[in-house]
Amino acid sequence: MTSVLNLLSAHRSIRKFTAKSVDETLLTSLISAAQCTSTSHHVQAYTIIQVTDADTRQKIADMAGPQPWVAQAPVFLVFCADLTRLVHACRRHNAAPETGWAEQLLVATVDTALMAQSLMLGAESVGIGGVFIGGIRNDPDLVSDLLHIPEHAYPVFGMCLGYPDDDPAPKPRLPVGAVFHKDRFPSAMEQKPLTDYDQKIQTYYEKRSPTLKDRTWTRQMADFTGQVIRPHMKAFLEKKGFFRQ
């Protein structure tokens, strides 16, 4: 296995960090390298905001969970899907921008996610760990107000980065056979039973804490799918200039 494959296989979320700061030059280098990630039509539809103000970070940490590591991590970034530069480019060339289409929302969100994953992998390659913070979408209006995020941009997720003060085991993923198929999507009858994977996940959580009972993957997914998650997002995205069409 190459070092990249080893890094990918060893990924785990880090929520406890040492007091060691992340050098600003290193952070800039990691972002610069991550910018080389694939991007649809060379749009590069993302903007990253490093949040350094302690009060702002605490407000986001409280709203997102609470997730105290948002306030405690040496680095906290907010990744925005951003079409503002495209609107500016149209105006610069006296072209009327077509905005609000679902495809634009997809392009910007995918670009942002791909770039952020590359940044995480680059950080892990130099001994930094981190965790994605989807909880900022609990109140995207608050995040937009705090960080002055304009129309045609929206906060997709946050990311904590720092030097790990914890060494959790990687969480087992679904077997490859459950997610990789040839020529066509599998029928329901062809989906392999998840009993073995459920047991792996249960064992993983029991090793983390004996109080974590009934934490199989299917139990968690049933709980997740059985509730409405962030129903405000559609109206928020429409207000931001996305998803109007």
Automatic annotation (TrEMBL):
Broad EC category: oxidoreductase
Has the keyword Oxidoreductase been applied to this entry?
yes
Q: Name one GO molecular function term.
A: oxidoreductase activity
Asked if the Swiss-Prot or TrEMBL record annotates the protein with the keyword Signal, the reply is: no
InterPro entries from the xrefs? Flavin_OxRdtase_Frp, Nitroreductase, Nitroreductase-like
* One Pfam family matching this protein: Nitroreductase
UniProt keywords, alphabetically: Flavoprotein, FMN, NADP, Oxidoreductase
Residues in domain Nitroreductase? Answer: 10-163
**Which Enzyme Commission number(s) are on file for it?**
1.-.-.-
Give the transmembrane region(s).
Answer: none
The family annotation for this protein states: Belongs to the flavin oxidoreductase frp family.
Q: What is this protein called?
A: Nitroreductase NfsA
- The encoding gene: nfsA
